[in-house]
Amino acid sequence: MRLALAAALAASLAAAPGLADDWQAVLDAARGQTVYWNAWGGDARTNAFIDWVGRQAEARHGVTVQQVKLTDTAEAVTRVLSEKAVGQETGGSVDMIWINGPNFLAMKDQGLLHGPFVGNLPNARYLDLAPGSPNVVDFTVPVDGRESPWRLARFVFVADTARVDTPPAAMADFVPWAEAHPGRMTHPDPSNFMGATFLKQALIELAPDPEALQSPVTDASYEDATGPLWAWYDALRPNLWRGGTAFPENEAIQQRLLNDGEVDIAMSFDPASTAAAIRGGLLPETARVFVPEGGTIGNVSFVAIPYNAAHRAGALVVANLLIDPAVQAHMQNIDVLGAFSVLDPNRLDDAGRAAFADLPDDPALPSRAALGPTRLEPHASWMTQLTADWAARYTR
Amino acid sequence: MSARGEGWGLRAGVIVVLGVGVIGPIAAGLAQTARAAFGVMPAIGATEPGFAAFAALFAVPGLGSAVRLTLVTGLGATALSVIVALGALPALHGRLSRGRAARWLTPFLATPHAALAIGLAFVLAPSGWIARAVAPFAGFDRPPDIALVGDPWGIALILGLMVKEVPFLLLVGLAALTQIPLTRHLATARALGYPPAAAWLKVVAPQLWPMLRLPVMVVMAYALSTVDMALILGPSTPPVLAVLLARAFFAPDTAMLLPASAGALLQGALVAGALGALWLIERVLARLGRAWLRRGGRGHGIDGLFALGRFVALVLAAIGGLAILALLAWSFAWRWPWPAPLPESWSLRAWIGAGPGLARAAGQTLAIALSTTVLSLALAVAWLEGEDRARLGRAGWAEALVYLPLLVPQIAFLYGLNVLFLRLGLTGGVAAVIWAQALFVFPYVMIALSDPWRALDPALIRAAAALGAGPWRRLVAIKLPVLIAPLLTAAAIGLAVSVAQYLPTLFMGAGRIATLTTEAVTLASASDRRVTGVYATLQAGMPLAAFAAAFVIPAVLHRNRRALRGGGV
What we know:
The structure holds 2 protein chains of 2 kinds. By secondary structure, chain A is an alpha/beta fold. Chain A has helices at 2-13, 17-30, 44-61, 74-85, 101-109, 174-180, 193-206, 219-236, 251-259, 273-279, 312-322, 325-332, 350-357, 380-394; strands spanning 34-40, 64-70, 96-99, 137-138, 141-142, 147-154, 156-160, 265-268, 287-290, 296-304, 374-375. Chain A folds into 2 domains: 2-150 and 300-361, Periplasmic binding protein-like II (D-Maltodextrin-Binding Protein, domain 2); 156-297 and 373-394, D-Maltodextrin-Binding Protein, domain 2. Chain A has 14 helices and 11 strands. In chain A, strands 1, 2, 3, 6, 10 and 11 form a 6-stranded mixed β-sheet that branches. In chain A, helix 7 crosses helix 8. By secondary structure, chain B is mostly helical. Chain B folds into 2 domains: 1-50 and 350-569, MetI-like fold (Orthogonal Bundle); 61-347, MetI-like (MetI-like fold, Orthogonal Bundle). Chain B is built from 23 helices and no strands. Chain B has helices spanning 3-37, 52-58, 63-95, 98-110, 113-124, 129-138, 155-177, 182-191, 196-225, 228-233, 241-249, 257-295, 303-331, 349-389, 396-407, 410-424, 430-454, 458-466, 471-482, 484-500, 503-508, 516-524, 529-557. In chain B, helix 7 packs across helix 13. The longest helix of chain B has 41 residues, at 349-389. The radius of gyration of chain B is 24 Å and the shape is globular. Chains A and B meet through strand 2, helix 4, helix 5, helix 9 and helix 14 of A and helix 16, helix 22 and helix 23 of B.
């Protein structure tokens, strides 16, 4: 394991020859910089991994990483925006953001992102960047090299198997399940990313024409696609926790409700989070991941660099380090974080493959096969309209 | 320069500092917010002035409910806190010395709102401590599906606010009581046949009110605009207005900034309206009360009301105490599932795992709090000493300026202020955070210090002057040493306020300045109560240590001078 790591590290140092000079200039500029990485800070394991990445960056490239812990990623967007408001075109306070689809779309539209840069990262050669790959579209919006992938996200449900015998096999099955177990499940508030994803998962399963979801929403397509969804939700809601009148703020709070025994089902965007939470004493030993049979929404977590970042070179170095095979293997280790790697196994060399070969296993960690196929995210405009519509329908 | 001239100079200096450091920025922040509210925010391409932002605000689903909820929780918590505090004050005053009473109140004052709310949520929730205690007897197999926290009426939020605000009002009330010839008035009332409760209500309360008015206004403004407490204890669909606005300010869709700014103005208007209503109620009550007093009834029926006040105060103290204990217990827990009344396994892992980040945040918090407190204390002493030397009375307008930051909702001007600071290139540093926190620390230091300062026996000063001591020597050799207890108490309060600041630290620190409070609020959105417990324990412990020091230091320094030992406050 250690040998494999070392070999992978050595391999990663030899960048493609054409890029080598440019990249050397980036490395030289980055040395001594402090990169302020704005990342959601609600997950202790992710925070610890970011800390570890920081130590690696320091040791290998002399770059310090400082995590700016956000309660909501949009805080960083607002900060860059207010800097733009006052014409601060350089020396901005945000160097790198762990970003998700809607915030990426907002920043891209406002011209707040640096790039394209992904193609210039030496380690990008381990990525599948072919058209149609999940690494080049974020919520159906083309990435255009303005954000670099670092971990895979898959929407999964979590149930306490001590209380749930047969979890629902499809989104439609949640209605009879909740009827039989009133008050025993809920979802995060749809103004939160995870709550919106719950609705989107139902949307792609229930919409008469799922293909329409890949295009920007129109009034007509919205009516057609969401009719069955709201009928389903109206049947489900009265049997939700608190009679569907109150919702946990995010998935972490819902996980706490599961641990407290207030609900029997929670959800996550990280298939490894259940195994991690059991190890951390935050979920009962009997908690297990399950997914609807047709597969679930998946996407890639990216990092982006604001156009006015003070330490752009440092941010590039960290973005490159994040897709280093050894770093990705460390990340996928359930003892560390357990998040799935974004690298293409077919592009790895022997050392890289070896680093992934003997990662430890865990009974609560699902295999990639058990998770079924990955469903595409609807176009970002759907989420905006869906959450606004939900608020209008169910906020009293 | 004459002492009088120096006094004017000092006062003028402080006013300049206040004007440049406090009033100007708040006004500028409000102006920025107002500009955005009326549609002008060039950064997002909005240049057309108009009312579109207000239209968008009023179209936000649930806005009406959010406003109603804000008024119910804010005004309800304020009114109930005042009533309970007034009801409990006689008992507290009669049974405990002022120093001891203050010591009992300190843990509640020192625990920041957010930390207390987190603990309280665990005590009250259907899967919480109380429910776990009764579960074996009530036969709960699963937690009951009742909204005990985040209930749609905001009861949990009102309760949380009361746990924090009643002790604050009691502390202020105890200090105010020393300004009244209490024993004489009560004896006279008793001689005239008024039972104790009626004597308090008819004789003491009207004299007390002028000294309580401002603290009550501060409580009211806070209760109407709290974000951190409402996030944890309040309902969510819809939340109170301040939370709704905080969400809008941080929404991915940047166009939301305009209606959010309009909402910030609405929030300001709500607070202004409530303060106006308070003024009106005071007038009406004064008129009605006078008639009631003149009728001369002996009010035998109101003893029960005071008993009720005492009882509610005790219940609040019990709940608040449990909340603080819950935080402590969680920080040492490992597995603690429903329905175990105590953790299944204990561990130091939460403390050790949080180690490096915790140490950094604690150090940062302490450094900022000390700087802010010293700065505020120096300003307060300069203000009061200037008043002494220039032989000025308490100027109402000047006090209003001091307390302005506590009366204007933070959300109404902090975003605008942030934009202004960015333009000046001041944001993101420790200095900006210290400055922004001082806005809120200075008024509390003034509240704590001004009454004891003005109550200082003038004979001492006259004697010193007669012996030839100049104004500076009188300040350094007499006033400061004699006032060491209230000075340290003011410092402890300042420290507690600084440690608890969330929005100013977040905005002005560009998120880079991690304090115990910013970390605790971030972690509260995560599932790990154990780590939250660690941060919240320290968050409460730091000010608590400061209060303890404020009690111990004068006692040691003045161990052979009984009258100066104080007992704090």
